[in-house]
Design goal:
The complex is a heterodimer of chains A (about 270) and B (about 400). With about 270 residues, chain A is α/β, with parallel strands linked by helices. Chain A has a domain at about 1-150 and about 230-265: TIM Barrel. Chain A has helices at about 1-15, 30-40, 60-75, 80-90, 100-110, 110-120, 135-145, 160-170, 190-200, 215-225, 235-240, 245-260; strands spanning about 20-25, 45-50, 95-100, 125, 150, 150-155, 175, 205-210, 230. Chain B has a 6-stranded mixed sheet, sandwiched between helices. In chain B, strands 7-6-5-8 form a 4-stranded parallel sheet, sandwiched between helices. In chain B, strands 1-2 form a two-stranded antiparallel ribbon. Classes of the chains: A alpha/beta (about 270), B alpha/beta (about 400).
Amino acid sequence: MTRLMRSLEALRAGGDRVLICYLMGGDPTPSRAAEIVVAVAEAGADVIELGIPFSDPLADGPSIQAAGQRALNAGTTVPVCLDIVRQVRRTTDTPIVLMTYLNPILSYGLQRFAVDAAEAGADGAILVDLTPDEAQEWQDAAAAAGLGTVFLLAPTSTPERIRLVGRLCTGFVYCVARTGVTGARVDLPPDLPELLARVRSETDKPVGVGFGISTPEQVRTVAELADGVIVGSALVNVVAEAGDSPAAAAAAADLVRSLKAGTRRA
Amino acid sequence: MPDAVMPDARGHFGAFGGRYVPETLVPALDELLATYLACREDAAFLAQLTDIQRDYVGRPTPLYHARRLGDKVGCDVYLKREDLCHTGAHKINNALGQALVAKRMGKPRVIAETGAGQHGVATATACALLDLRCDVYMGEEDIRRQALNVHRMHLLGARVLPVTSGTRTLKDATNEAMRDWVANVRDTHYIVGSVVGPHPFPMIVRDFQSIIGREARAQFAEAMGSLPSVVTACVGGGSNAMGMFHAFVPDAGVRLVGVEAAGRGVETGEHCATLSVGRPGVLHGSRSYLLQDGDGQVLPSHSISAGLDYPGVGPEHSHMKETGRAEYVSVTDDEALVGFQMLARTEGIIPALESSHAIANLTSLAPTVPSGGVVLLCLSGRGDKDMETAVSALGLGNALNGGL
């Protein structure tokens, strides 16, 4: 995942934090989604997480559940998402990490997916319901294809698991800020500094924090603690409000610009 | 590894099972596994469980020689009467066992998913008995078709949380229960109701249900001095079937036959015949057969019986299908309704629509049973909860007057 690592290192060296923006692939339609990704990258997203929809997203709250359903209704599949990556790659070098659940990838074929995703121009992948315990075949396939692997850490993770996840992540560690599903929240969890201190004491990898971060103020606060800040549901909601129109890309870009201000060390 | 001692340390039954969950749940599953393994070796825990099973659930349940049913279908049939358990189905065996484990872990709140409502009622019952808070997730569609069980849960002090996503049935109730567990894992235990889910659930549920087969095997040997030729049960997630089969797995001469729900017919796509026509995938935490489309999206399922209306199945069943130790067949909604009436008319026992699938399949099974052979069938639950569905499906009771 050299492009992702280079990009993260460059930002780290400059003192900036990384803004990681989640968008649902194929929402509201595949062609519109490609437009939105490009606009979000141009507006300052440092990394794009591109969701591949799954019928039963266990870790997601209502916003991303609905986005996935819209994408599925628009005919989005794994190949369609890879095609979005190919289209986006014509105009932007921003690292792209695919994010989904295991079953669509199993169905597509783990090795085939790793090869095709890397060829399409993706830099890494996150499979939400695949923990390191069951991931050997996936890691081998991803490593052989040159695709990065990111695993999740949670507030409930033990020191041993933080070390394990830290060792297996290429690029960054995805730290889930709270016990719960994705979705915008009014408040940040009060124990976030303590969680990040625990994570930092067990791994040197850059740490991205997500789940429930939606406003520029929250981004600014989390950027004080973490290397990267992940915003998902808030962006997905903006896309949902705009619907299938050019306004979706513009609205998402506006939000990203305001979020980005929170990750700069000026 | 011999089938009787599966799963392995990481919850694998051959190529199936395992643990596919968001990271947040891993420590809770480790804690559950450690507590459960300690309980399994703890004489005081086992004594308490045995007392409750005897004095509260009413175990052992009878083994009943269903002579008139046997005459009707053309082979000798014995019924294991799980319908006579307290709360009316086998689900109480697992709910009480897991509620005791939750107590041991010091978790004051329990959640559950339910389809037909039997697991929800069983969990609400166990929580009332053991003074635990209880929230049950139930699809809106199932709340409609199993209203009686919703009233029972309320009366027992549980909250019933309606689920409006997806097909509004068991799959979606399970999604919501998992999301709740991810959010509240520190003070909440999730009592999974079937032999599905991430390790250690398929093992724990099987172990608590395996009393069905252990009792039946001993009762049968006592009555007949031999073993049955065929042991059969309905399969949705597969908990009553696994509980019944497990004691017979080492008895190579005993055929194990699981009966899935073919709904409106396997060819219509509206069914729950997961093992018959699904392919392996990952849903709700384990690798098992799954009804899914070519892109790995889970397909909606259909069965007249809410308890079988699920697109997945327990991983140990997938393993037994793969090894050939068990056979899996399916019967339609209409056939199940025939079985429902047949048991009522021949034996004066109104079965649950779930169990009616196994009854209905006896007609196809009988010609394959060797002369002098006996079929042992797990009658997993009683049919009171299904009266409205059955009467409506049978045309306002007209068919009930027609005889068979």
